[in-house]
Predict the structure.
Amino acid sequence: MSKAGNEWMPFYRAVHILEANALKEALELEQIQVRIEKGANPEEGTLSPEEFIEILLLIREQDKKKATMVIESYQQRQGIGWYCSCCGEFNRPHFEVCWRCKHEPGEAAD
Ligand SMILES: [Zn+2]
């Protein structure tokens, strides 16, 4: 029996396995189930073998909103900048609210 919203969905494409593992930990702390899938990067070219691999984080559809907030705060903490879940704008790490729509990372989007 399958419940709606309980399906696995691709959620985040990590640039590195270390990033993927750190995010998985952060999400699991919030009781969000995470699966990591590795696949070949379809964009073949001059990438090194490490970059060649695509790491995909999968979560349950029902956890999407919560997971988005976890990722936002994680990215802000890491000092790598963060993408606003409201308007999709990229924000520099020291921005405490989205410069475009004033959304606060970690706050639920409407
Ligand atoms: Zn925004």
Summary: Helices lie at 17-29, 64-78. Residues 84, 86-87, 89, 98, 100-101, 103 surround zinc ion (CB under 6 Å).
